[in-house]
Structure formats: C-alpha cells, structure tokens
Automatic annotation (TrEMBL):
Protein name per UniProt: Glutamate dehydrogenase
Superkingdom, taxonomy of origin: Bacteria
Membership in a protein family: Belongs to the Glu/Leu/Phe/Val dehydrogenases family.
SUPFAM superfamilies given in the database record: Aminoacid dehydrogenase-like, N-terminal domain, NAD(P)-binding Rossmann-fold domains
Keyword Membrane: no
Organism, scientific name: Sphingobacterium chuzhouense
Entry-linked InterPro entries: Aminoacid_DH-like_N_sf (IPR046346), Glu/Leu/Phe/Val/Trp_DH (IPR006095), Glu/Leu/Phe/Val/Trp_DH_C (IPR006096), Glu/Leu/Phe/Val/Trp_DH_dimer (IPR006097), Glu_DH (IPR014362), NAD(P)-bd_dom_sf (IPR036291), NAD_bind_Glu_DH (IPR033922)
Length: 474
C-alpha cells in the first residue's frame, strides 16, 4: 500500500498536465482557465486526541478546489499517505468529475493522516468527531458549503459520526442530515450508495462497448457478454464491478489483490473467490486458478477488459507495454501514470478515464443529498400510484383483447419503483448520457486523441461557462 510523497506530487502534476492538454482545445481565456485550475481553499489542522493514556497530535486536511457551484463535494480518507498534494489532486479531480456527470457541486476532498488499523473503533470515533468539529469551526462543512463522503479507510460508520457531531453543533439546521453522504440508511442514507461506484463502472464500460465502429477498431464485438475481464482490487468498487460484469455474462478471467493474483481462462466466480478469501485470508490457491505471488503480473495477463480498482499509478512506464487488454476502465483514481497513458494510447487501447468512469459514487451521493434536502425517500409518493395505473392498463388490454396476461407478466408490469430502482435508473441514465457527451468531443473536436482529453474538455467547457455566467469578477 505504501506510496511516497513523490508519487503524490506526480499524481497532482499529472492531473494538472491533463488539464493543460485539454485546455488548449477550449475557447476560454487564460484568466478563467487559471481560476478553474486553482485550489480555492485549503484547511490543514493539527489537533490532540487522547489515545489510551497518551495524547496524540493528529494531522488532517480539507481542500475545497472549486466554488463555481456549491456545496463542494468529496470523500474523506484515513491513510498514512495523506498529504496536501494528494488531497489537492483528488479535490481537483472531484471538480471535473462532478461537471462531467452534470452534478451541481464543486470539488472537495479531505484526509486524516492515520493508519486506521492501529486504533479501536472508540478511538477512531474520537478522531472523526474531533475532525468534524474542526471543520465546523472553520466553516468547512455544511449542506450548502461542503459535503464530505466516504473514501479509503472510511465508510457509513464514520459518516454517521460526522452527521451526529455536525447536528449537535448546528441544532437549528433542519437540513443538517445533508452535511455528509454515504450515511447508513437509518441516518438518512440512500439505498444503492454502497454499490454505486462499481455499478457506475459497469454502466460506463457497457456503454463504451455498445458502439460498433469503436469495437470493430479494437477487434471486438459489441456488448459485455463473453468478454474476458480482469479486475484489480476487491474492495467495494472492484467487488461490485466484478459482480455486475459477471451477471451480464462476461467471463472474469483474473482477480488481483495486494498480496497476489489469480487467473483462470475458464472464468472465476467472484462470490466463491470472496468466500475462499474469507476462509484462507487471501485469494491465492483458489481451486483451478493459476497463482501469481507478484500481483503486478496479474495486470499483464490476456483479457479484453482490464479494470484497475485499487490504488494510484499501478500501470506505469515499466509495465504499460505488457498490458494485453483492449479496454482499460479506470475504476480507481489515477491508476495510470501519464507515461503509461501515452504508451497505451499508442497501442490503440481504449482507456476509459477515471474522471468519468468512477463518478457513480458522487452521482448517487448527489441523489442522497437531494433526498436529505427534500426530507422524503424516493418512490414514497409515486410507487402505489404507478402500480394502480399499470393495473388499469392491463385491465383495459385484457378486456379489449379478451386474453389474460400471465401472472409473471402481470407482476413484472405492475411493479412500481422502489428507492433502489430509481437510484439505479438515475445512475444508468447519468453514465450513458455523460459517455455520449465525451465520445462526441473525442470524435468531433479537431486534434483530440483520447477519451481522457475529451473528458477534461467536457469538464472545462461546463465550468468555464459557469464562471463566465457568474458575471463580472469583483
């Protein structure tokens, strides 16, 4: 897991480099481009927390990259790799990500520099609540200011501590629940948030595979069924992506974790691999699969689609040439270095960029935020009404044709949407629409050579217009 600060710096620089490359294809003047690129506000705090009998000084950050739309939005990670450069790079990616999927937020990101495995749940709670109160003091959190979410090392549990601390410090704010997303459903969370990023990755790759001329160029047929997929990282994102690919008829030929990789050209079952991992502590020695004790080798095996869903910079100048996939779907943030990007593009590999492909998480976070502001769950008002309408329709069809609709068909047609159906459908629509916007720029704007540049152009266009229409700068 270790990553040096130089890796973070190069990650920040590669985000800036991608921005500059795309900026030359847009019409905005240097001043507006400089403003879009700049990190607007950076909070760095150190606070004491009593751990056992001693006091530890904890270092933490929150970056608000862009205020062209409010609130700012972005995860909080608990990791020893957290430093200002990394948090700034991730906040910038969030700004562009939100613009691409038409979510009306500015980008933000937070981090606490700790190894969460070293603390008890009680100690983590103390650290998280203290961090939240620091954010409150500095006005770096709030439903209309800055709305955090889970990231590495954090989940629904940490979000519930944050919302509780924020609510107790803001007792008169009726929208206090909307100060953070990724909460447990009982605390105002939305159904479908857990699998959102992985499902978004699946929808994005599926959409990319639906264009016949693009697939013919790669020597592939359209559709997901039958395609060989390798997934790196079986965390929340990778696991759900793998599961949706498998359900759509793809063949999971390889799975990669930090301590090794397995490969089986006949296909692996992700849930059986997870069960094997639970009992043995790792994915290696799965029945029938080839083992690679060096996980990096797993990336280089034969497949059609490679999904890196783990850490930054896993494909770099030293291994990019050995990647055999035809499509690389960036489920993680920044899994390719900029040198690797050039090598893969020259090989004719279709790289679906992170700032589009893993935006499913922030899309569903947006739905959760809207749910909290409206104080009503999705589907509550219309579910029964729609079921009754469909029932009337079936009655009319049956009486007109004199034929009975089968019970199974009746059940299928009559189902009004639950919250999860509406969330998944909103996510699907978002991923399809955004891919088409990006592909359109890629195909039609002179000189644009890859989807990543097209995605950055798409983001800059939208943010640039927002800044122009904000009117005169003071």
């Amino acid at each position: 897991m270790g990553m040096t600060n130089t890796a973070n710096n190069s990650f920040f620089e590669s985000v800036q480099r991608n921005f500059d490359k795309a900026a030359q294809f847009t019409r905005f003047d240097q001043g507006i481009l400089a403003q879009i690129k700049a990190c607007n506000s950076i909070l760095r705090v150190k606070f004491p927390v009593k751990i056992g009998d001693s006091i530890e000084v904890i270092e933490a950050y929150r970056v608000q990259h862009s205020h062209h739309k409010l609130p700012c939005k972005g995860g909080i990670r608990f990791s020893m790799e957290v430093d200002q450069e990394e948090v700034m790079a991730l906040a910038a990616l969030m700004t562009y990500k939100c613009a691409i999927v038409n979510v009306p937020f500015g980008g933000g990101k937070g981090g606490i520099k700790i190894d969460s495995r070293k603390y008890s749940a009680f100690e983590l709670e103390k650290i998280t609540r203290r961090y939240t109160s620091e954010l409150c003091k500095k006005n770096f959190i709030g439903p209309g200011i800055d709305v955090p979410a889970p990231d590495y090392g954090t989940g629904a549990r940490e979000m519930s501590w944050i919302v509780d601390t924020y609510s107790s410090l803001n007792p008169n704010n009726i929208d206090a629940q909307a100060c953070v997303t990724g909460k447990p459903v009982s605390q105002g969370g939305v159904r479908g948030r857990t699998e959102a990023t992985g499902l978004g990755v699946f929808f994005g790759v599926r959409e990319a595979c639906s264009f016949q001329d693009d697939m013919e160029k790669l020597g592939l047929t359209t559709g997901i069924a039958g395609k060989r997929v390798i997934v790196q990282g079986l965390g929340n994102v990778g696991y759900h992506a793998a599961k949706y690919f498998q359900e759509a008829g793809a063949k999971l030929v390889g799975l990669i974790e930090y301590n090794g990789a397995i490969y089986d050209e006949n296909g692996l079952d992700v849930d059986q691999v997870q069960a094997h991992r639970q009992t043995t502590g790792g994915i290696l020695n799965y029945p029938g699969a080839i083992n690679f004790s060096n996980p990096a080798e797993g990336l280089e095996q034969a497949c059609d689609i490679l999904i890196p869903a783990a850490l930054e910079s896993v494909i770099h100048k030293d291994n990019a040439d050995r990647i055999q996939a035809k499509i690389v779907g960036e489920a993680a943030n920044g899994p390719l270095t900029s040198e690797a990007d050039v090598i893969l593009n020259n090989k004719g590999i279709l790289v679906i960029p992170d700032i589009y492909l893993n935006a499913g998480g922030v899309t569903v976070s947006y739905f959760e935020w809207l749910k909290n502001l409206s104080h009503v769950r999705y589907g509550r008002l219309e579910k029964r009404f729609e079921e009754n309408m469909y029932n009337e329709l079936i009655d009319i069809i049956e009486s007109t044709t004199g034929k009975r609709v089968s019970d199974l068909e009746r059940k299928t047609i009559l189902r009004g949407p639950d919250e999860i159906d509406l969330v998944h459908s909103g996510l699907e629509d978002t991923m399809i629409g955004s891919y088409r916007e990006i592909r359109d720029i890629y195909k039609n704007r002179e000189g644009v050579e890859d989807l990543r540049t097209a995605a950055f152009i798409c983001a800059i266009d939208k943010i640039g217009v927002a800044y122009e229409e904000l009117g005169i700068f003071p």
